[in-house]
């Protein structure tokens, strides 16, 4: 996703996330964001410049964070926000709309979790512009989890194992800057 944003001309990838301390998926996505920006853009992302927290229960709303993000931009920066999950991405979408920003002209938006449950109910198609997402291989995740569980049941000394599965980028209008 980061490589896609750079190829499209975005100069500033931004991560919007919720608190990650008690959520390994959010933590992993934040760490992956930092690593990818370092590798592809050549700098280390910083909190309150490149990584923004939202938590409506704590009063940290999306619009205020988008405003802070815009204040942190340098002249010539073209930001693209990555939401850590579909909820965060949808909140950012609504915040962008509320602020009247043009997408993809002034800001790009993308996020993970294009679960592809049904083409008719797939949330990235329900809004305009359609949102760029990563398709998560949910069926394969289920198969792998079941295999590991069965293996653990029969071999209790089996060590934990992390399995990474490839995702598919679905580039759509929200990041089509060029």
CATH superfamily descriptor: Response regulator
Q: Helix- and strand-based class? A: alpha/beta
Round the Cα radius of gyration to an integer and report it. Answer: 17 Å
CATH class: Alpha Beta
Inertia-based shape:
globular
Account of the protein in words:
37% of the residues lie in helices and 14% in strands. The protein contains five helices and six strands; from the N terminus they run H-E-H-E-H-E-H-E-E-H-E. A six-stranded mixed β-sheet has the order 2-1-3-4-5-6, with helices on both faces. The mean pLDDT is 87.
Please write out the topology.
Layout lengths: L1 H6 L4 E6 L6 H18 L9 E3 L8 H11 L6 E5 L2 H14 L8 E4 L20 E4 L2 H17 L13 E3 L8
Parallel strand pairs: 1-2, 1-3, 3-4, 4-5
Antiparallel strand pairs: 5-6
Protein name: Substrate-binding domain-containing protein
Keywords: DNA-binding, Transcription, Transcription regulation
GO molecular function, one term: transcription cis-regulatory region binding
Can I get a quick summary?
With 178 residues, this protein is α/β, with parallel strands linked by helices.
Notable characteristics:
Peripla_BP_I, Rossmann fold, alpha/beta, globular, transcription, 37% helix, 5 helices, single chain, 178 residues
